[in-house]
From TrEMBL:
<protein>
    <recommendedName>
        <fullName>BACK domain-containing protein</fullName>
    </recommendedName>
</protein>
<dbReference type="InterPro" id="IPR052407">
    <property type="entry name" value="BTB_POZ_domain_cont_9"/>
</dbReference>
<dbReference type="GO" id="GO:0005737">
    <property type="term" value="C:cytoplasm"/>
</dbReference>
Amino acid sequence: MSIVLSNLLLDGYTKILKTVFEILINYIYSGKLELANNDVKTNIALLIAADELCLNELCPYIENYLLNDKESLKSNFVLILQTVNKFEQFKKLAQLCKEAYQKDPSLVLRADDFVTIEQEYLLEFLTENNDSLRQIEVWDKLIQWAIANSNNELPSDIRNWTNNNVTTFGILIQPFISHINFQKISNY
């Protein structure tokens, strides 16, 4: 496909990553889609783009591929959870997430991509599941989340924090403080 045509098509779908769009264009021309060469983020982006572009035959194919990659689902549980919350049409993926989440809410905390969770989802998660979570794990993850979401204002080693860093941290975690039972955190 010419670069001009590709750019014209892409202009109408500005939320689709160029690499994802190129993979889909290649699929349209060749009829082949190799998902094993992609990471989970790319495959999720492909799923969303295929849905947006009404490539209906691709959505179940990509969704089933994702469902069979259990380790990647665990590692990227936050991404998957946020995706199925925004795109209800991915029913199989949503069902798997719902079942896994109900069985073990701490999957969210243990996900490799935990720090990418949006504040509203994190607050909702803590509100719904706080009693079933280890408070020290919640606190540790909240520190990691705040550091990752501080726009590089917080050093990763808290021993190097200044008074300004502590203030920034306090502002970032303020919405979550009431959801942490500090009395259940023992010295370790």
